[in-house]
Sequence to fold (384 residues):
Amino acid sequence: MHFPWCLKKCPYCDFLSVARPRDEIPSEAYADAVIAEFDRRRPSLGDYSPNSIFFGGGTPSLWAPTALGRVLRHITDTLGTTPNELEITVECNPNSLNGEHASALADQGVGRLSIGLQNLDAKQLKFLGRLHSPNEGLQALEAAVASPVPRVSADLIFGISGQEASTAADMAGVVADLGPTHVSAYALTIEPGTEFGARERKGTLPILPDEAIADTYSAVEECLEARGFEHYEISNYATDGHHSEHNVGYWTGREYLGLGCGAWGTLAGTRYRNTTVPTRYTESSTRWASTNLDEHGPGRLINEIEPLSPKTRLSERILLNLRLASGFDIEEAARQLGTEAWPDDRQRAAARLVARGRLARDGSRIYIPKAQWLFADDTIARLM
Ligand code: SF4
Fold:
């Protein structure tokens, strides 16, 4: 479920997010709109039964907890389940999360908070365009861990110009010691449609060299593994099996219902994306009871629809599933999707990658050995 507003647009971010002052965010109207969308989609969902609900954004911690809870209850009641049976995550930013807010979300049935801490260095936070200070980040994490919400994840971004591998590892250690059950540690990527992308094209964006990013990646991994975190996906670490059920769903190719402005969904082998204009999404919702879900384009609920061929779906499985330490059974996936696992060019690419140690095969299961994760993008591209 996508919540499209933030207090400010970060210069590296290519998610759909629109800056809006906190008191101008229409929490109740947005809840009404999401419920209207869900009700319209419900008849075509068949026996759809979710494992998880993820409120992402944008900044869903700006959504009034009672409004978010109203949507959550409507969906779980309609689908005949309860929040307790699902992994329910809300993404939060430090300047819109405190102990009281975390408790209010727990009261609504939220069981997992994912906090965009990103960094603990004031200069680097400023470079990333974040609104919070290092202390505010730490206070939000402490409050979340002390709250009744049982599972807390912290997001970190590393590979920032001027960052040493040892300071990145120290930062991960400070965060890990505060008691989250999960840490996501992403290397800063420069997306073309962002302010950072424009600065990179002009040559004015300071960039950390690849070797330094690799050193940082290894230092962060070493630090978190020493504290008992399992490195279960290229950028994700969990304690005691607290993997992100929701993200594992994406990585293993499960289908998902997307709701909200700009949300992506994949159902019955078709991907769709909702309108990306928040006012249009909210203000048009009264029309959706009669909207045609097969139509898309400007002014409609759905912006784009793409039927996915079995071949494309297998390529996506390679792209996502190989991010997991366990990899996946490519022949089983191909059978399920009704396509060929090993066309000649993929067979040849896999043989070369195995010979170089970049890829491992165990029967029909393929995986990227951990020591080779830094080259995962290249390995995956060759297999796709
Ligand atoms: S707060 Fe998150 S979603 Fe919003 S602009 Fe920044 S990175 Fe993007």
